[in-house]
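Quick start: what a row looks like.
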Amino acid sequence: MEAFAPLIAGFETALSFENLVFVFIGVLLGTLIGMLPGIGPINGIAILIPITFALDVNPTTMLILFAGIYYGSQYGNSISAILLNVPGTASSVATTLDGYEMAKRGRAGPALAMSAIASFIGGTLAIFGLVFLAPALAQFAIRFGPAEYFALIVFTFTTISALTGKNFVKGLIATAIGLVIASIGLDPGTGAPRFTFGQLPLYDGIDFVSATIGLFAVAEVFQLLEQSRVGGEVRTKIGRAMINARELAGSFWVMIRSAVSGFLIGTLPGAGATIAAFLAYSNEQRWVDKDRTFGQGDVRGVAAPESANNAAVSGAMIPLLTLGVPGSGTTAVMLAALLALNLNPGPLFIEQQPDLFWGLVASMYIGNVMLLVLNLPLVGLFIRVLLIPRWVLAPAVAVIGYVAVYSVNGSVFDLMVMTALGVLGYLLRKINVPIAPIILALVLGPMMETNLRRALAQAQGDPSVLVGSPITIVLWILVAASVVLPLLTRRSALEAVAPPARSRDDEDAPPLND
């Protein structure tokens, strides 16, 4: 019982009236921020930092508010991803693969309900991991150097084969397109411009928000316009608003496994919820997708990434609080707020600030309960968006996308880039090239390049550093397996459906008369 004493004290802190109010404000703001593409939890928290300083908010309460925005936005992202195929952040791209397909089939309600339940289960399990495993996982995460991160990102790219349906080559093409887009801008090592064509705005690279909204939202608008008829029509039937017991039971272990993997990935500094969501999706597709229904509206394809990305949020708190190393862009902003308050996260942080750490942990569980109670009853309201006629919905999505992109940087050039990528995304859909690998490569490409350069610099150019530790060896074995297994599986499937070969005797024999 003594082991739970700090956690009980944390609940006493979190259950104070002030902290409960800020937990609710955090998850509510997080949900709204997640629903609006282009804002994201990073911008939301950055805007609130000076406000909380001006209000002289207690550091524990401030961190509780920011954490609520962080994990609340993960669910909010799924709403626009499922209903409109517009992911708010990279971590919700994996949710669109099955979530949007469910919405088109009149199953948006079960998809949103599963998203809320999976987020709750993922967040809850991750909080237990945060309580019992934080010190040990912090020591393990510190072993990941540049070579390990490079191998991990390559492994993430190769698992895209599981996200690309039946055509592995098209998945690799999509990844290559994403890496080319990610390489636009200044070379991180030399500062030389790459693929900028003399355009100064391209020196900063392609903005992620512009790329995401262009490839998904604008391309989706083109498809909506193509499918619309004069006078407008209902986009799809809304169907039932809640998940049934069979779907929940069939997804239970998917959520458990994805929560565990998402939490572990989240503990790696810099990995974040994006890698966690994609790896969870691809792993579950390999393990449970016997009928090849992932990507066609399988509710398990929503459960896996939603459980993983919410668990990764809790996991990202471990390197933040125990090492002083941000595990994601959002926790980097939170670290800046802590340092501004003269609070220095590190190995002794839990002992020196027990009220803050345990109060935060307890508030995250309370916030996950609030999210579930808040959002499940609203599923029926959310799916009403699908009743909007296409001739109204298409321009509405376009307006939201263009306003979101312009509000980020105030750049007309970004609007042109977004439009061009929208046309590219529309054409790629026409030839069945998946979009998700492009976004993943765009997000992780710079990180992969940076870690490769650092690893080679530390080893004075010796490439053996990339296989110089047990962790990298294991990761490269997984890379090889993720490339070979899809090819073998596809070959076996083709052999199974191919007609048996005729022997020479059969060819020479006269045809039988009926």
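That is the whole record. The beta strands are 185-186, 193-194. The first helix runs from residue 5 to 14.
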